[in-house]
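Dear U.,

Please find below the material for section 3 of the report. The protein was modelled together with nicotinamide-adenine-dinucleotide; I have listed the sequence and SMILES used, followed by the predicted complex structure.
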Amino acid sequence: MKITILKERQTNEKRVAATPDAVKRFIAAGAKVTLEKNAGLAAGWLDESYKEVGAAIAATPATALKAAEILLCVNAPENIEELPEGILLIGTLNPYANKEKLEKIASKNISAFALELLPRISRAQSMDILSSQANLAGYRAVIEAVSVGAKVVPMMMTAAGTVAPSKVLVLGAGVAGLQAIATAKRLGGVVSAFDVRPVVREQVQSLGAKFIEVPVDKNEAAETTGGYAKEMSEEYKRLQSELIATTAKTQDIIISTALIPGRPAPRLISTEMVESMKQGSIIVDMAAASGGNCELTKLDEVIEHKGVIIVGYSNLPSRCAGDSSSLYARNLFNFISTLMIKDGAITVQWEDELIKGTLLTHEGKIVHPQFLSTSSAA
Ligand SMILES: NC(=O)c1ccc[n+]([C@@H]2O[C@H](COP(=O)([O-])OP(=O)(O)OC[C@H]3O[C@@H](n4cnc5c(N)ncnc54)[C@H](O)[C@@H]3O)[C@@H](O)[C@H]2O)c1
């Protein structure tokens, strides 16, 4: 059982798919692990720390891939041509944006598992890369806001006068939003949060934040049976927009995380609202990669509009790459050790719903129902 980890090559990616701790666990489970030289460096691990737990270090990707059976990645590898035939590829493969790559992966007879497609059932919680990464991203969003701004967050009473605490508004109280609320509270902010799902009210309040809400028609369900937000009525959106407009004016920081899975990010912050905000206030738009919750957000840029700073980083987990990698690597280990290893050998449980839910390509074809191409469906 040979596992390989390459250095991530995507711009702005500092994470690594295995930490020394994860490597130690894989070796204890009977694997041989090889990492490309400096694979963990940007996340804070020297090659030495991997060697200490028994990994081999290879000078080039080609040497690292020699005899590989499982390849772990954070992002889908760039050069699929260079991958060995028939391996298992496991990571965040972003199949929506990588359709062409998917065909190439299938043509190399690779069995590719996109962990972001993992069904969100309780058995899969310890393998859930979306939750682990969104958690850290929510934390980091607050840190980014604080670091680009000129205002402190806590109330400070000094001999020279009192500094008022920052007011922080969090839009969307899912995984990232709840962590953003907790972080802003820990820093001493006065936090309020808004979400279309009234069921999160208690969670928001238990973190010490105020839950602001649109007076809703009780018959209008805000979530699907799977617990995700759903598209709301036009009347709801109008009331919501008024509520956000009134609240935004008084805030120092807005962290926006609103998302409806599989849809473009809902537009919650208009140019007009930005222009009504206080000079020096900050918006961190976590939904930048899916189009942005704010009309003015620019992907992977920090811009200033009439005195308001708007942060559009798409990869916040990479900005705290050490801990993000630790949780990510642990998610991968839990997935592999539970569903792919038995008595020190690779034994994939092909019929398990977690395997079926994540498997994109197998035996030369695209097999995931959401991504079937005409050729492979035939
Ligand atoms: N920038 C980054 O580095 C980074 C990292 C991780 C996640 N994200 C993004 O952050 C966002 C949140 O991720 P998550 O894991 O917390 O998702 P999640 O599904 O757990 O939470 C999204 C929340 O938004 C709420 N929502 C939906 N529509 C809304 C609306 N119109 N108004 C207010 N709330 C609304 C939902 O009810 C839900 O609670 C996603 O867009 C995700 O892609 C960004």
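For the text of the report, you could mention the following: Residues 130, 133-134, 137, 171-177, 194-197, 200, 229, 257-260, 265-266, 268, 286-288, 290, 313-317 surround nicotinamide-adenine-dinucleotide (CB under 6 Å).

Regards,
Y.
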